[in-house]
Amino acid sequence: MARSTQTVDELAERVAAGDRRALARAISLVENDDPRGWELVRALFPHTGRAHTVGLTGPPGAGKSTLIGRLVEHARAQSKSVGVLSVDPSSPFTQGAVLGDRIRLSEHFLDPGVFIRSMANRGALGGLAEAALQAVLLMDASGREEIFIETVGVGQAEVDIVDHADTVVLVLIPGSGDSIQALKAGVMEIPDVICVNKADHPLTETMVREIRGVLALGPQGGWRVPIVRTEAARGEGIDELAAKIAEHRDYLGAVGELAERRRRNLVSEVLTIASARLRKRLEGALRDDPELARLLDEVAARRLDPSSAAERLLAVAASAAVPN
Amino acid sequence: MARSTQTVDELAERVAAGDRRALARAISLVENDDPRGWELVRALFPHTGRAHTVGLTGPPGAGKSTLIGRLVEHARAQSKSVGVLSVDPSSPFTQGAVLGDRIRLSEHFLDPGVFIRSMANRGALGGLAEAALQAVLLMDASGREEIFIETVGVGQAEVDIVDHADTVVLVLIPGSGDSIQALKAGVMEIPDVICVNKADHPLTETMVREIRGVLALGPQGGWRVPIVRTEAARGEGIDELAAKIAEHRDYLGAVGELAERRRRNLVSEVLTIASARLRKRLEGALRDDPELARLLDEVAARRLDPSSAAERLLAVAASAAVPN
Hints:
Distance between the termini of chain A: 30 Å
Shape of chain A: globular
Strand order of the largest sheet of chain A: 3-2-4-1-5-6-7
Structural class of chain A: alpha/beta
Helix content of chain A: 40-55%
Largest interface: A-B, 78 and 78 residues
Number of strands of chain A: 7
Strand content of chain A: 5-15%
Largest sheet of chain A: 7 strands, parallel
Oligomer: homodimer
Radius of gyration of chain A: 22 Å
Number of helices of chain A: 13
């Protein structure tokens, strides 16, 4: 195929022009850790920073994908071009949607104004975060105005892809007791917007009251976290949710926090990428070096302690590292 | 004070003899990243591997600490010596227990057969996992027969201190809908034992049925994950929980899985320690090197992409790394 002979510059130009196929190919290169993928991001990085990135997180089954489908419809009704990145292994975007979802989401797949991609390599979380963040940059460079990122989270979020978004929406449902407890205990960070989905459930108001109670304990002043009730499956509450997301973005811009948040996110992105690469080198060293494999046998036999083994591993990995 | 002049060898000897103060001091050294701490672990590592380590995880508010208090009572009634390590920032062990809990837990603080320690440096999770795993080794070397590790978890567990235990107990309560969803979606790993605490709640049987449904979807054969109902506050169900934990340990031993699981855990411990140290070096390099700080300004201005910045950071950190 002709496109495999495309130069990185040609591909970058087509991505910047908004070409969907070029964007898909660029993301695949990044996902496969192909050096051309990184070159592309390098070339396109100056074109980034224009999109509004919105992260939706929450427990599996809260309806994040359906909600994103509705938010996409809403953005399309305003003729905004949209990108969707799902890094939730349990998402219908990833697994192939079922029934009604399949129909609704596949409409979007056919709309040239919507670009949908899922990444859910379980077990390779370091590399996943790294690739996901680059994919968002590529979507941004290709002129997508709104980018929705779907991640699964039930409290802790070490990987925190979602934290790199301008606006973080936590999606809960009546019955999300564990998430409420995690918020209350400070184990989970307070998001920018809270959405209580499946709000036709009789326990919705109890849940909203509990959330209010948790928010009242937090710092006051600044942005007031809104609680929006939705029924994504029936399209209810979507206008309000979209309005609150837009309001948050406007707020960040007005108080000058947007630039600061993005700077912080980019710094943490640099660290995430560097750590992921280091970890990959360590795992490679462990796999390829028979002497290191013997080291692990020594640890298992309790003759060599884990910390000393780690130092030996670091020494080998450092000598193997060729800065490029 | 005389003890500050103690040599590492003297301290190691006292830890191995079961001296509580020596153990406390050894853990502090590890927690403070003092080189003597690591020397101690090196010296004592051959004495480890005798304790049965039990990890209890679950959402905040599920009653893990109270449950551990009861399991400690149970072990003490059999004259077993016990260690407790809490790495849950929302735990009463960490925050100072309240009311009834305080009284019950403080009894244990006075019992020389019980050693309790909490570590909950939020924000330093890499370092925390590293120190926690070493603390468990030190408790093990000091002759603690049962070690309970308390971690907070609501689905994802990247840090996975609890995964280093021989037996993992997931503690849920009626209302733990998010955890059930996370189990169902495969986002949370199936534990060895599931405990439904606060089982006097009217929705307990609904929760037990939901858990059964999730377990039925998983692989059959091998260890059958038991579901135990407890009311930790009133001491109910504790005998059964302790019996199931002991049964799991016996099962691992009988089928030869214990050695394999421990080997796998030690290998992952080596990687955890190595990665944490690398990350620390990177953060140090970013903090101390004005040229790297300027690099980040370039990234924030979108003139240098995050991946290229990460490579520059890695090159600097590699040249700064002195293998020891």
